[in-house]
Specification:
The complex is a heterotrimer of chains A (about 250), B (about 625) and C (about 230). Chain A is built from nine helices and ten strands. Chain A is of the alpha/beta class and about 250 residues long. Chain A folds into two domains: about 160 residues, 3-Layer(aba) Sandwich (Rossmann fold), CATH 3.40.50.300; about 70 residues, no CATH class. The chains are: A alpha/beta (about 250), B mainly alpha (about 625), C alpha/beta (about 230). Chains in contact: A-B, A-C, B-C.
């Protein structure tokens, strides 16, 4: 049974169609990579699943519950977490503060005013666990804006993991990374728990083929093909799009 | 029939004057994303300079040329020297910078021309009146109508038909692209700013014979001009024109037929438009760009031991202080305590949650009025009044906050301003209860365990106690998970939502807590002062507390306390030997915005941190 | 004409361009190829002065342009056609063309000549910018840059998001400009568009230039194509 299912998902801005009849089913634990040229509607798709963008038509189901049109915070609390293409962090707060905010969001103690945040041991323990999971070696007290770009990218993943989601949406996790950092990110994603389902947008084909169980190719908002890496590599239409049509 | 016609004409005349200020304000905002609070000051400066010119030359027409020219020169200095270095910073810094200039200009006008109401003589040729449709109308008003319409037409032609106008519109659409095609955007900024100042100054001169000249005329034209551009849409000339006429006519008919409600009318109009059509009638900027708030960065999560020692010492000094000084100083420091609570309460909203409220005095004044009105009308004990003030201001803050937190940035700023001015109008108009503009007082202060608060020493310890209580309470709140969530909202709202926070609820909560605390400080002020007038709710009072918070350092708790102390000490000490405390505080504030964006405390802390490193 | 010498550009803390070097000679069409996020647009932004490289040199006709404000770079002879086209929505087509035009008498590009080359724009002369289709916007953006009578044209993915027929039209326009001797720096993801127009190609990946060569060399190099361009 699939954890996440998209049924005939559509979204347009005026006359511009960014998502057209997208159907997708992600089984538990699958690593699913979405690729496609610029403007194919990849980020729009992630934004709809994450609730940042409301679909015009169609349904999004999480464990067979219709979550279409829910507010982002409600979608998150039901188990879908996401990262952003551009680092979207609390740059002026420390690494630990960032993770603490992410952890306490899903706990009742988030509204507590009686004790200082630093003394909530359960929150702190979870924050440190996530820190180890995303392999940030830096001092947890450092301000995020002083981290290297690659570390910020890793923290971006950590922020999503903090709430212990069942589905993780990664929007170009390696964008802007150096080749060495990219290898690190591939390792990191591989090390995530096997039961976690991941939907990932990625451009770096090296990353795509290292991680994907299945690949979906988007083109002008439509699903051009879905299949295993081998199937996608053999697909003529896909090759054509990536090398461009002949003139 | 004639009466309607007369009101219509009056409304149109006022609308034209509004248009001259609003057009510049709107263009400047459209191109530079700067809300210039000093724009009303240029209106005022134009009028006063014209006063001097007509005195020298007896020639109104000459004044109509010279006064705007001189005002533009002043405006350009302000833009090039002071505003330009700030373009890379957030909008709030620029708003605050121009607010600092309103102090300087206000005081300069008082200094040079005095505080009395003056009137500019209309030129002789226009002093008669004309009969139209059976009614008599002053020729000068008809001239104003023609002048406004003529300028609007010229402005429209320049903007829509000339290449220069096309450049400005291109810059409003996409200034980066325009630069990439060779447009010198900074020069364009300066040009548009200068033109805006010229229009405002021209409006000031033209308004002189009708509205009169007085320090304070700046705010009286600025606030309605704001309302005009909110209604018409920021950055749109057509919007400014339609909005001006709408507000002008609404104001004229309101004053004539529902005088009791006339002041509400335009605020209600604005609140209505902000909620229903936040981009305005002809708004070209989809919504208003979020104010990239620049507040003091970083928080003191782990206070070092040193700070704890220092706080203890400060506490002891403050506890012992009144025993060694005169009543005058005891009272002054009591007042600082009250305003420190007020400034801290704003800082929870502004510095910690990142919401630029420009109407915080509304809650302060409401709390004060509750205590005083209950005391004077029902003889309610001041302490009980204070207890009643808390739920009432909490309710008001929750209701007002419910509307305001749905917006952000400049829209939030304007909406909070509108609501506080609404409260101001109520206090001003509801004479039976509030005493109107005269204010209202209570006979005696309550006692503290048998010790009358009329004794400055008792007053001191009472305000000191509540100050420490509020400080500790806020410190605890800010260190708690909830307080951290407020900071998260300030730092990155979209990320907060993406990790599962319903940020609207958090903003409303912060706004309500801050508003309630402001109401509480207002209640304390009532006990302290024994008297309250509408001034306590006025937008300039909201500006004062904003200055306190920013001057000391927003986003810290100590900062607003320092800011309140510096502000009140300057106001009291400087005014005792020199009349120009406004000028001085304006200059200090401008310097602070430009050079110490973290405020006094922020600067001190950075220095300390650097010295330690 | 244009020399880019080992520039490093950052977006905040993220290191986007890592020592990028290349040049464009008089009358030459050079193409930067690469996938999304490779750093192609960042290169153009650096040349235009929107982003200032932390190190390295950039020269236009031998004169350093590093650190100059964008408008001075434009006035020095660079015509910029951004990826999003940057049409001013509240200006008419004609105003878009003329507002920042630099058409001295005897200049190569005048409004009349533009209308000859892009007859569609004459028909739409009085329409506002936002009323145009994607293809028309692209034409207008190119035409607007030509109205500056530049020595060098920067084109950021002019074929992106357009129907194949329109892409062909744009390719024809670029070929025409090349024939007139205009130097062009083209950014492309589409290999065939690039081969159809450019003389030399630089393949960019993760902010570094991985391959430099002529059209023939690129076409022959299967490993570069499969590693940096193909699936």
């Amino acid at each position: 049974m699939s954890v996440l299912r998209l049924e005939n998902l559509c979204r347009s801005f005026g006359s511009l169609v960014v998502t057209h009849n997208v159907n997708l089913a992600i089984p538990a634990g699958e690593r699913h990579v979405v690729i496609g040229p610029n403007g194919a509607g990849k980020t729009s798709l992630i934004n709809q699943i994450g609730g940042q963008l409301r679909p015009s038509a169609g349904r999004i189901l999480l464990d067979e519950v219709d979550i279409t049109g829910w507010a982002p915070e409600r979608i998150l609390r039901s188990g879908i977490a996401r990262t952003f293409q551009k680092n979207n962090l609390f740059f002026n707060l420390s690494v630990l503060e960032n993770l603490r905010l992410a952890v306490q969001a899903r706990r009742a103690s988030g509204f507590s005013v009686l004790r200082p945040a630093a003394s909530h041991a359960d929150i702190l323990a979870r924050a440190h666990a996530v820190l180890a999971q995303v392999r940030i070696d830096a001092d947890a007290g450092r301000l995020v804006r002083n981290l290297s770009y690659g570390e910020q990218r890793q923290l971006e993943v950590g922020m999503a993991l903090a709430g212990d989601p069942s589905v993780l949406l990664l929007d170009e996790p390696t964008s802007g990374m150096s080749p060495a950092e990219t290898v690190g990110m591939i390792d990191l994603v591989r090390s995530l728990p096997a039961h976690l389902s991941i939907v990932m947008i990625e451009h770096d084909m090296n990353v795509v083929f290292s991680l994907a169980d299945r690949i979906t190719v988007l083109y002008y908002g439509e699903v051009l093909a879905t299949g295993t890496p081998a199937e996608i590599q053999a697909n003529e239409r896909v090759r054509e799009i990536y090398l461009g049509a002949k003139h | 029939m004639e009466i309607y016609f007369a009101q219509l004409l009056n409304g149109l005349v006022y609308g034209m004057l509004l248009f001259l200020t609003a057009a510049g304000l709107s263009l400047i905002f459209g191109l530079m994303n700067v809300v210039s609070l000093a724009h009303g000051s240029f209106f005022m400066l134009g009028a006063y300079i014209a006063l001097s010119v007509t005195r020298q030359t007896q020639n109104f027409w000459l004044a109509l040329l010279i006064a705007p020219a001189l005002t533009v020169a002043i405006g350009l200095v302000m833009e090039r020297v002071f505003m330009r270095p700030l373009y890379r910073r957030g909008h709030l810094d620029q708003v605050l910078l121009t607010f600092g200039f309103t102090f300087v200009f206000f005081d300069a006008v008082r200094w040079i021309w005095g505080s009395d109401i003056r009137k500019l003589a209309a030129p002789e040729a226009l002093q008669g009146s004309v009969e139209i449709a059976g009614g008599m109308f002053s020729t000068y008003r008809l001239f104003l109508l023609a002048l406004g319409a003529g300028l609007a037409l010229i402005l429209w032609l320049v903007m829509e038909r000339s290449r220069l106008g096309a450049m400005v519109r291109a810059g409003v659409d996409d200034s980066a692209m325009a630069a990439g095609l060779g447009a010198n955007i900074p020069a364009l900024f300066t040009g548009v700013f200068g033109a805006g100042v010229a229009l405002a100054a021209l409006g000031g001169v033209a308004a002189g014979p009708v509205l009169g000249l007085y320090p304070g005329m700046d705010g009286d034209i600025l606030i309605p001009s704001f309302i005009v551009i909110v209604i018409g849409g920021m950055g749109s000339l057509r919007g400014a024109f339609v909005g001006s006429l709408l507000v002008g006519i609404a104001d004229a008919f309101g004053k004539a037929y529902v005088p009791a409600l006339s002041m509400f009318l335009i605020y209600l109009l604005m609140a209505f438009f902000l909620l229903v059509r936040p981009q305005g009638l002809f708004g070209i900027k989809g919504g208003v760009a979020p104010a990239g708030m620049v507040v003091a960065v970083g928080m003191a999560f782990n206070r070092p031991q040193l700070a704890r020692m220092l706080s203890l010492v400060a506490l002891l000094v403050l506890a012992a202080f009144p025993l060694f000084v005169a009543d005058y100083h005891r009272t002054l420091v009591s007042e600082i305590f009250v305003f420190a609570i007020f400034a801290m309460s704003l800082d929870l909203i502004l510095g910690y949650t990142g919401l630029p409220s420009f109407g915080h005095a509304g809650f302060f004044g409401l709390g004060a009025y509750v205590v005083i009105v209950l005391g004077s009308l029902f003889g309610l004990n001041g302490w009980l009044g204070l207890l009643v003030a808390i739920p009432i201001t909490a309710l008001a803050a929750a209701v007002i906050g419910f509307f305001c937190v749905r917006t952000s940035g400049i829209t939030f700023l304007m909406l909070t301003l509108a609501f506080s001015q609404l409260l101001y109008s109520i206090a001003f108009k509801w004479r039976d209860v509030t005493g109107g503009s005269d204010g209202i007082g209570i006979a005696g202060r309550p006692t503290l365990f048998g010790w009358s608060l009329d004794d400055p020493l008792a007053l001191y310890y009472m305000t000191f106690f509540f100050f420490v209580l509020c400080y500790l309470g806020l410190r605890r709140l800010i260190a708690s998970p909830l307080g951290h969530s407020f900071v998260g909202v300030r730092e990155n709202e979209s990320r907060m939502r993406a990790i599962g926070y319903a940020t609207g609820e958090y903003k409303l909560l912060a706004f309500t807590i801050g508003g309630t605390l402001a109401g509480f400080s207002g209640g304390l002020y009532a006990l302290f002062n024994g008297f309250v007038s509408p001034e306590a709710l006025h937008w300039s009072a909201s500006g004062d507390v904003l200055i306190m918070a920013m001057l000391g350092g927003a986003g810290t708790l100590v900062g607003p306390v320092i800011g309140a102390a510096v502000f009140l000490l300057m106001k009291n000490l400087v005014s005792s030997w020199n009349d120009h405390w406004m000028m001085i505080i304006g200059v200090v504030f401008i310097a602070c915005v430009m050079f110490f964006p973290g405020g006094i405390w922020g600067m001190l802390r950075d220095r300390l941190a650097r010295a330690r490193a | 004409m244009l020399e880019i010498d080992r520039i490093d550009t950052f977006h905040g803390e993220s290191h986007i361009l890592r020592g990028v070097s290349f040049d464009v000679a008089e009358g030459e069409v050079v193409c930067l190829l690469g996938r999304n996020g490779a750093g192609k647009t960042t290169t153009l932004m650096s040349i235009m002065g929107y982003l200032v490289p932390r190190s390295g040199a950039m020269r236009l006709r031998g004169r350093s342009i590093a650190g100059l404000p964008s408008h001075q770079i434009a006035r020095a002879g660079v015509g910029f056609v951004p990826q999003e086209r940057g049409i001013f929505p509240s200006l008419t087509v004609r105003e878009n063309l003329t507002v920042f035009a630099r058409t001295t008498p005897g200049a190569r590009w005048t409004l009349d000549r533009i209308y000859q080359v892009f007859p569609r724009l004459r028909e739409r002369e009085r329409n506002l910018g936002f009323q145009l289709s994607g293809g028309e916007q692209q034409m207008l953006s190119i035409a607007r840059a030509l109205m500056l009578n530049p020595d060098l044209l920067l084109l950021d993915e002019p074929s992106e998001g357009l129907a194949p027929m329109i892409v062909n039209e744009i390719v024809e326009v670029m070929r025409g400009l090349k024939k007139e001797g205009l130097a062009i720096l083209l950014v492309e993801q589409n290999l065939h568009t690039a081969l159809a127009v450019a003389d030399r190609h630089h393949v960019v990946n993760k902010g570094e230039i991985m391959f430099t060569g002529t059209s023939a060399e690129l076409e022959a190099d299967e490993s570069v194509k499969s590693r940096y361009l193909a699936v």
